[in-house]
Design a protein that fits this description.
Length: 381
C-alpha cells in the first residue's frame, strides 16, 4: 500500500527516479518482513489451528498447510508488492497474466501431488500446500523478471534495493497505518469471528462459513478490480496535481462497482442454494451456507462503496483515516455484533453473518463520508 501510493504519485507527476526508488525499497522491505512473518508462522501454526476450533485431522491438516506456505512467505511478499507497484504504475495486464499463470500452475501441480502415482502423488493436504507454494514462487520470479526488463516509468534497478532511509520512511508513513488496519483491524477481527464460528459449530460451521465467502467472491472480485483502478487513478491524478479529475475517476469506479456488485447481489438473493451447489455437493453444507449468501446479497451496494472508496483513499495515501474508520467499524459493529447475535441471542451462523453485513454497510457510509469530505486529496505522501 505504501509503495503503491508513492509509485502512483511519482508516475502521475512524471518522476521516474522516485517510482523506481519506491519499488526497490518496497521489495527489500517485503523480503525482510516476509521472512520474519514466515518464521513466526512456523512457530504459531498449531496455536492458530487450535484457536479457530480445528481438532483431530483438521488440526493436523491446518498445521501442515500453514508451515509449508510459511517457507515461501518472502516470495509471496515479493509477488504482492511487485504486482501492487505495477498496478500503481497503470500496468494491470502483467499482474493479471502473472496471477493467471500462478493459478493454473497451482491447480496442475496440486492435483499431481495429490492424485498422481506414488512417490510423486499421494501427499494430501501437504501436496496442495506445496502446489500453492511452488506457484507463488514462480509468480514472484515472473514479476521480478518483468520489473528488471521492462522500460517506461517503472523498472527495477538493483542499486535501488539498497536501503535508503528517506524513501523507506515515505513508504512506511503510508504503509504502517495500512498494516495496522489490516493486522489489528481486518485480520484480527476476522480471526476473532472465525473463533466464534468454530465455537458455535466446529468444523462444519467453519466449512459453511468459508463456502459462503467463496460464493461471495463472485461479487467482490469485480469490486476489487474496480477498487484497484480507483486506487491507481486517484494516486496518479493527485501526482499530476489534479484533484478534480481524481475525484471524477473514483466516482466512475464507484458507480460501476455499485451496478456490478448490486446485480450479483440480486442473484445471491434469488438463487443462493443453486450457487452454493455449484461448488459443494454436501446437502448439510448447502443448507447452512445458502441463507448466508442470501443475507450478503442485500448489502452489495454498501460493500461496493466500501471496497472502491477504501482502495481510492489508500491509493491517495490517506491510510490514517482508513485505519481509524476500520477500527471503529469492526470493534463497534462486526465483533460485538457477531457475539451478540450469533452467541448471546443464539442465532448461530446467521446472526454472525448479519453482523458482518451490517459492518459492511456502516463502512460504506463511513468511507463515503470521508471521500465526499475531501481530506484525502490533501494528504502528503
Amino acid at each position: 500500500t505504501g509503495a503503491g501510493a508513492l509509485v502512483a504519485r511519482a508516475v502521475g507527476g512524471g518522476h521516474r527516479g522516485l517510482a523506481n526508488a519506491a519499488l526497490g525499497q518496497a521489495l527489500t522491505a517485503a523480503v525482510v518482513t516476509g521472512a520474519v512473518v514466515g518464521g513466526a508462522l512456523v512457530v504459531v501454526a498449531p496455536g492458530f489451528a487450535t484457536l479457530i476450533g480445528l481438532d483431530g485431522l483438521g488440526h493436523g491438516y491446518g498445521v501442515v498447510y500453514l508451515r509449508v506456505i510459511a517457507a515461501v512467505t518472502p516470495a509471496v511478499a515479493v509477488l504482492f508488492v511487485g504486482n501492487a507497484c505495477l498496478r500503481a504504475a497503470g500496468d494491470t495486464r502483467t499482474p493479471f497474466v502473472t496471477m493467471g499463470v500462478v493459478n493454473v500452475v497451482n491447480v496442475i501441480v496440486s492435483c499431481v501431488l495429490v492424485f498422481g502415482p506414488h512417490p510423486i502423488g499421494g501427499w494430501g493436504v501437504a501436496g496442495i500446500a506445496a502446489g500453492t507454494a511452488l506457484a507463488w514462487v514462480l509468480g514472484a520470479a515472473i514479476v521480478l523478471l518483468v520489473l528488471l526488463r521492462q522500460g517506461g516509468m517503472l523498472r527495477l534497478r538493483l542499486h535501488r534495493l539498497k536501503p535508503h532511509g528517506h524513501t523507506l520512511k515515505r513508504i512506511l508513513r503510508v504503509g504502517v497505518p495500512a498494516f495496522l488496519e489490516n493486522a489489528l483491524g481486518t485480520w484480527l477481527a476476522t480471526f476473532i469471528v472465525a473463533m466464534m464460528v468454530g465455537d458455535l459449530g466446529g468444523t462444519a460451521y467453519l466449512g459453511a462459513h468459508m463456502l459462503a465467502i467463496r460464493i461471495e467472491a463472485l461479487s467482490f472480485q469485480p469490486g476489487f478490480a474496480l477498487g484497484v483502478a480507483a486506487s491507481t487513478l486517484a494516486g496518479q491524478y493527485l501526482g499530476l496535481g489534479d484533484p478534480v479529475r481524481a475525484r471524477q475517476a473514483v466516482m466512475w469506479c464507484w458507480g460501476a462497482a455499485v451496478i456490478v456488485m448490486g446485480g450479483v447481489g440480486l442473484m445471491f438473493v434469488a438463487i443462493p442454494a443453486q450457487l452454493v451447489g455449484l461448488i459443494a455437493d454436501v446437502p448439510a453444507l448447502v443448507e447452512q451456507a445458502a441463507p448466508l449468501v442470501r443475507i450478503c446479497g442485500y448489502v452489495q451496494a454498501g460493500f461496493a462503496t466500501y471496497m472502491v472508496l477504501s482502495f481510492a483513499l489508500r491509493g491517495a495515501g490517506d491510510t490514517r483515516a482508513t485505519m481509524w474508520i476500520t477500527f471503529g467499524c469492526v470493534y463497534t459493529v462486526r465483533v460485538p455484533g457477531a457475539y451478540v447475535l450469533g452467541v448471546w441471542l443464539g442465532w448461530g451462523l446467521t446472526g454472525v453473518w448479519i453482523a458482518l453485513c451490517a459492518d459492511l454497510m456502516v463502512k460504506g457510509v463511513a468511507f463515503g463520508w470521508r471521500f465526499l469530505q475531501g481530506g484525502w486529496t490533501r494528504v502528503r505522501v
